[in-house]
Amino acid sequence: MGRSVDDPEFVTAENYRPLLSEGARKQAMAKLRSSDTLAKASRVIAMKTAEIRGAVLALVEQLEAAMRAQDWPTIFAATHEIRGLAETAGLTATGRIANGLCHYLDSIAQLGSEPDKAIVSLHVDAVIRSARTEDDAARHGYTVAEQLSALVARKLAEIKDSARG
Fold first, then answer.
1. 40, 91, 134, 136: which has the highest count of C-beta atoms within 10 A?
2. H/E run at residue 17
3. pLDDT tens across 8-41, in order?
4. What SS3 string covers 77-140?
5. Residue 121 near residue 148, CB atoms below 8 Å
């Protein structure tokens, strides 16, 4: 009788049978690292940058609507997607700010607390502005991301301290 879905078998990475022989793996890795492959990948990404940017801006609109509704799961989901796509779209500051908000929301959930609406709002406003105003984002995005990160660190420390005492 075979294993059931309720009785999974976990196999560590070291014990998992390779899909390719050692020679084929080396050949595939050499191909992936080749300058020709990297150049082709760069061209494809460059051709898709406008499309990816459009996707980020659509996610920013979802984020804006979710913030108005204070829909925390949608805020987290949209922010998570923005974080993953923004840098590829040339929106590095937007990605950094979205990453900070993801970190905050994830940490708050792990601590069993409710998000501070002001902190979330600051992040969401910064994500929106940095995605829509590239000049400001280029000049101030890194500083904004750093300041928001410091704010999150202080707020999380306060929550942890109050939980201890």
1. 91
2. none
3. 777 787 888 888 888 999 999 999 999 999 999 8
4. HHHHHHHHHCCCCCCHHHHHHHHHHHHHHHHHHHHCCCCCHHHHHHHHHHHHHHHHCHHHHHHH
5. no
Residues 6+ apart with CB under 8 A from 159: 108, 111, 113
Q: Which of 53, 50, 69 is nearest to 130 (CA)?
A: 53
Look at residues 105, 23, 13 and name the one whose alpha carbon lies nearest to residue 67: 105
Measured from the Cβ of residue 34, the count of other Cβ atoms closer than 10 Å reads: 11
Convert the pLDDT of each residue in 87-141 to its tens digit: 999 899 999 999 999 999 999 999 888 899 999 999 999 999 999 887 666 677 7
Domains and CATH numbers, the chain: 50-164 (1.20.120)
Question: How many residues are there in the chain?
Answer: 165
